[in-house]
Design brief:
Elements: H1 7-18, E1 24-27, H2 34-43, E2 48-52, H3 56-69, E3 75-78, E4 91-97, H4 112-125, E5 126-136, H5 143-155, E6 162-168, E7 178-184
Parallel strand pairs: 1-2, 1-4, 2-3, 4-5
Antiparallel strand pairs: 5-7, 6-7
Helix pairs in contact: 2-3, 4-5
Length: 187
Amino acid sequence: MNRLPRATELAHAWVRERLRLGGTAIDATAGNGHDTEFLARLVGAEGRVIAFDVQTAALESTRVRLEQAGLLDRVSLRQESHERIAAESGFDVVMFNLGYCPGTDKAVITGAESTVRALAAAAAGLRPGGLITVVCYTGHPGGAEEAKAVLAWTRGLEPGRFRAMRCEMLVQTDPAPFLVAMERVDG
């Protein structure tokens, strides 16, 4: 790569290092299905991906993308809030891409309270060595507050059980998204 990676690209690079064939992954915010497709390719035919989104249009877009790629059979699409991760456990990777789904109603956004609850559920169900990535967007209404809540929650993780970091562009004309990544290190 001849340039610094975007937050989403960096999240993909780190997930690619962790997620193996036969693994289990969660796309907490399916949106248009880009991360869901990426995860489905990584887990292979023996793995599974669970993708959450509250919007019918987002899940339909994801379903079409997966069907066209021949990957729909390894993905479970759930029209539920990302908080419903709590019903799952034993996963290797969880990806969050916060904000709104491009091409849909921009008034429908992820929110600080539900995202923090979803992060807590993700951390509780994550296997040792697992990874959570969160791409935070601050340039839309509610985005800065949600990003602040994500950072506050992350700083409260138990040292020795988790490690976490924040990566962001420091020179940018528009509010740039940033990446928060957490890995479970206890075993």
